[in-house]
Amino acid sequence: MNQSKIQNPKSKIELTEWYFVSAIIVVMLVVTTIPYIYAYLTTPADKQFMGLVINVPDHGQYFSWMRDLTSANLAANKLTPESNPPVFFNLLWWSLGRIGGMLGFKGYAVMYQVLRFVSISLFLLLTYRICAWFLEDKLMRRVAFLMVAFTSGFGWFLIILKYIFHQADPPYPLLVFGAEGNTLLCMMGYPHFIAAALYLFAFDLMLRGQVQEKLSYAVSAGLVALFFGWQHTYDLVLVYGILGSYGLLTLARDRKLPLYLLKSGLIIGLISCWPAIYSVWLTSSANPIWKEVLAQFGNVGIYTPNLFYLPVLLGATFLMALFTAIKNNPFRLQGLSNNELFLKTWFWANFALIYIPTDFQIHMLNGWQIPMAILATQGLFRYILPFLEAKGSKPNPNLLLAAVILVIIPTNLYLVSWRVLELKRHEYPYFLLKDEISAMNWLESNVKPDEVVLSSMTIGQYIPALTGAHAFLAHWAQTVDYFTKEKMTTDFFNPKTPDVRRQEILQNCNPKYNCHVDYLFYGPAEQALGKYNPAKVSFLEHVYTAGQVDIYKVRR
């Protein structure tokens, strides 16, 4: 029999199943919105909640792009003081900026919540559609779907160790707070990762096209890959790597050229390769600033955990999926349907891709939770439950669902609580003083787009998005020569630093690019770096006061 014609059971989804999916979507929206609602409702009278609950520096760069792309098609890097032309494009933030502008929303907060709600809903709908393609049994579909939605690792155990040994942070914090692969954490604080994971739709279309042998599906898959490639180019590594591996394994299984997959691959590649070409051009030829930015992506040292720690990050779902994948014999190809072969390929090829030697390797975890959940569910129903039944135990299906959730959810319960407790302090960087907001509003009205503002990192990460000006220090990668700028900022506010040194920082912060500072932002966050008094020097002109915040213009 022709192996390529062997298919798994039908994937028709009934209306009652969509009711279930809709209910889970509502639950996820409510749960992940709790920290935001709490922060808005409890904000002190003298402060403003900035609309973020985690990872302000990275969001600062996104919102800077969003601001510039609201009225232009290309953006400059304003998270660094060096002048650079607008050559950067990102479809996600361009779209949010344009839609927000048309709807009259000022700033980023409203459109950020729109992104969260839309991406969560679409991702969960797509997840169930994919689960139904591989799983005929409705209960199995629901179990796999819930694994994707709620799964988390064994980070809760590290939290227990933290409190037992009275440590400020848990051991190996990334294993608790790593976002990639944790659907709920991404939904709460990294919605752009959830939006990026919709690249999986390209796999869905390709598989359906293979069944019908219609290349129109490949065209659609290529357009999907193109669309999401303009948001996160590195997702194309997953698309090409997994589809390419599937084609090679199909060739090995059938011992003949898989013409449909070959044609589909060429179509998908030709349609979607342009974001990859653009990214190579951007980071190599467009402007030296972007080449230096790319070189700094390893500054924070966040990489995929090694194989020993990976189960701690990904939890029981990963362990059950790995057990199932090994039980199914990773080397067996003959007799597998296309669906079975693709699922095997997806799991193992993605497994390999999370360790590619790049600074963005950890992003390859994004979306892997779906094949993991499907394999884990298959293992649960094919191997674990039959074993229990043989021992005289037959679990109730509802109890089974509850047990699955109880096993996979503890770390996520902690993560939601952790964000609420963090926001309860009403401190930087999630809250700014209204005086600081007023000062940035003044800057927005008075600075030119190419002018530079020196401040603490706390304020600097917001300056491009809220004022349109360049920040002196704003981001661990986007700020060129980040550690030098960080030291310059510390030196500037240190009262022991000679004024000659301060003038050098203001007048020529990077000799290679001949950049200089135009304004000084001086408020409580800057005072915390040192008790330097800028009012006493002649090279700074006081131009604005808002309560605890002063702004000075650099005299030349």
Question: If you had to describe this structure to a student in words, what would you say it looks like?
Answer:
With 556 residues, the chain is mainly alpha-helical. The chain has two domains: 122-421, no CATH class; 431-554, Rossmann fold (3-Layer(aba) Sandwich), CATH 3.40.50. The chain contains 26 helices and seven strands. It has helices spanning 15-42, 56-69, 91-103, 109-134, 138-150, 155-164, 174-177, 183-189, 191-196, 201-212, 216-229, 235-254, 259-272, 274-286, 288-295, 310-327, 338-353, 369-390, 397-408, 410-424, 434-446, 457-460, 463-467, 482-493, 499-507, 524-527; strands at residues 47-49, 431-433, 452-454, 470-471, 519-522, 540-546, 549-554. The protein has a five-stranded mixed beta sheet with strand order 4-3-5-7-6. A two-stranded antiparallel ribbon has the order 1-2. A hairpin with a 2-residue loop joins strand 6 and strand 7 (549-554). Helix 2 packs across helix 3 and helix 14 crosses helix 15 (288-295). It is globular and about 85 Å long. It starts with 14 loop residues before the first helix and ends with a strand.
